[in-house]
Amino acid sequence: MSTLPRELKSKRINARISAAEEALLRQGARRKGQTVTEFIVESACAVAEMELAEQKEFVLPPAQWEAFLALSTSRPSQIPPCIAC
Predict the structure, then answer these.
(1) CA 68 → CA 49, 55, 60, 78, 85, distances in Å?
(2) What does the alpha-carbon distance between residue 17 and residue 33 come to, in Å, rounded to a whole number?
(3) For residue 16, what are the contacts with CB-CB under 8 A and spacing of at least 6?
(4) Which of 39, 53, 59, 68 sits most deeply, having the most CB atoms within 10 A of its CB?
(5) How far apart are CA 22 and CA 16, in angstroms?
(6) CA–CA separation, 75 and 56 (whole Å)
């Protein structure tokens, strides 16, 4: 399921697909009780989110990098109690 907030849907994406791909998408949507559009959007967003989560390199402008370093090396103001202990 996508973690994106719900918003008015006004954008359109068109794709050319084979008859076999269309049949597969329709079958998958039917199995999940979704429209083809819902099925395609949910599936594509899930794959995109996983792909972006696997990103290993991030480039930040110098000022943002310094802010990130400051936050990542500073001690937290409060340390929450250990729940598993």
Answers:
(1) 23, 17, 9, 19, 30
(2) 22
(3) none
(4) 39
(5) 10
(6) 25
| Residue among 33, 34, 40, 35 at smallest CA distance from 17 | 40
d(CA 38, CA 46): 12
Residue 46 CB contacts under 8 Å (≥ 6 apart), including other chains: 1, 2
CA distance 34 to 43: 11
Which residue in this structure is represented by tokens 């084979």?
18
The two three-digit tokens of residue 78, written as one number = 């409060």
pTM over 0.85: no
Q: Contacts by 33-40 with C-beta closer than 8 Å and gap 24+?
A: none
Q: How far apart are CA 28 and CA 36, in angstroms?
A: 8
| C-alpha Rg value of the chain to the nearest Å | 21
In the chain, which stretches have pLDDT less than 70?
A: 1-4, 85
